[in-house]
Design goal:
binds xanthosine-5'-monophosphate, alpha/beta, globular, 317 residues, Rossmann fold
Length: 317
Amino acid sequence: DWSPESFVDATVRELREKLGDDKVVLGLSGGVDSSVAAILLHRAIGKNLYCIFVDTGLLRKNEFTDVLASYRHMGLNVKGVQAGEKFLGDLRGVTDPEAKRKIIGRDFIEVFNAEAKAIENVQWLAQGTIYPDVIESMSVNGPSATIKSHHNVGGLPEEMHLRIVEPLRLLFKDEVRRVGRTLGIDPLILERHPFPGPGLGIRILGEVTPERVAVLQEADRIYMDALKEWGLYDKVWQAGTILLPVKSVGVMGDERTYESCVALRAVTSTDGMTADWVHLPYDFLARVSNDIINRVRGINRVVYDISSKPPATIEWE
Ligand code: XMP
């Protein structure tokens, strides 16, 4: 019979046997899977697990600092790498969604590789791959081949000869969360909404500039905080804020403004393949809209996305 406790016991034992005194490198994303994989490995091999957490400059507001602190708090040996300038520099002038994904994926691999190479005698690459990822990677040429492309650390230099270890390979998402709870991982990490690897880069329609990232981070922060305050965060499978490539006219006092617009998105789903937009309360939407327009400079209009998937995807890009 499967139970999270027996899974943890058996896996920790197996990992110890398999890895011995070897060193293992793992990329943390802030998400559930990589966090649970890291804590399991940490139980098994302690300081021989080297974690790398890359700030792409496209994370949510304060995410890098907060998540890094909570990883350290859990005792992980984690290196935070601030690479935002590289990503934003390479994204300059790029507006095509797939081109953005490619650049972000390539930069991620470059940054990760450089860090992995700096670990002397590292022999293993650990990944938070779960069962649905395994299935997905077996389907040839599905749209997900591009969707998750950046997750593939397949670009690791050959000369490193890293062997792969994937302790969550046979688990479904809910099992991963149960294992995480058994391991005592902060519920705030375990209950987090999914967040795409390319991050805010694909929630900024049009060019990704540092200024536009900052504007979106502010608006998104207000929306996320309000979802939590109103007890709605856990009722939603995924929520996000999208900065649109349009400006519209507004008034402020006697002044005419001509500023940006954000769209709010919230969906329910089980696996992200299909999704329904959430009927968030009007009072809630009114509050968030007011707060964003009053507090975020550069935004004078907020809209709510009432499209379900299919045909509308969850992300706008
Ligand atoms: P869509 O927009 O295809 O999204 O309905 C389905 C789920 O996948 C996430 N998503 C991504 N995740 N890299 C990722 O790691 C990507 O390029 C990417 N694009 C979409 C999306 O956030 C949703 O959970």
